TrEMBL record:
It comes from Larinioides sclopetarius. InterPro entries: Fungal_SecMetab_SDRs, NAD(P)-bd_dom_sf, SDR_fam. The keyword NADP applies. Gene3D superfamilies: NAD(P)-binding Rossmann-like Domain. It holds the Pfam family adh_short. Keywords: NADP, Oxidoreductase. This is C-factor. GO terms for cellular component: cytoplasm.
Amino acid sequence: MANIVVTGASRGLGLEFVKQLAKFNKNPKIFALCRNPQGAEKLQNLASTCANITILKSDMTSFDGYKEVVSNIQKEIDSGGVNILINNAGMMLKDTLTSVKYKSLIDTFELNTLAPLLFTQALLPLLKKADESTLPLKVGKSAVLNISAHLGSIEENATGGYMSYRLSKTALNMVTKSAAMELKTSNIFVMALHPGWVKTDMGGEQAPLTAEASVNGMLTVLSKADETYRGCLFTNKGRKIPW
């Protein structure tokens, strides 16, 4: 059985990842991490209908708490490892050069950049223990998927704006690239995906894409990924985004 960890799973893309992954043919065990499990009604309802979903409390900016989260995951999977980590938790502010504040930069970097980096680091022993035969992918024995954004592309930035968000996602892209290179010898695959402009609490009601369509697209791209995707950023439709 594959073991999959999803951060920011209480709503939006994270919740949709849990929904769709729960339908995988290999019946994976899914660890849905969220800051407030008691308030995550939709996630709780989903877990009540699927025995393979385990909800764990985790504030992704409480870095000192990662050890306990990883320990709780380890208890559930016994001697096994984690096959897929989806670093999904994130935030976005619509700040600009003239409005951006120090606090907003720190808060955004902590959740969008430092959390994926440090949580991957904390989970690395379990990623290394994964059994290649249980991974529902073409590459590696385990995989790390960072949810990044087209707004993090320096080359394709034509409008500016979203200052703290852009900076954090550009940095996350470097985390993705460096981790992918460092973990290649461990047979751990790392890539980043842009979900598109999605109709979620973050994206707003005017967004053209549903969470269902976005996640379906990202999982399709992930299922087709080979070594040429390692350390790269792709859209949910499979286009490679330049840095």
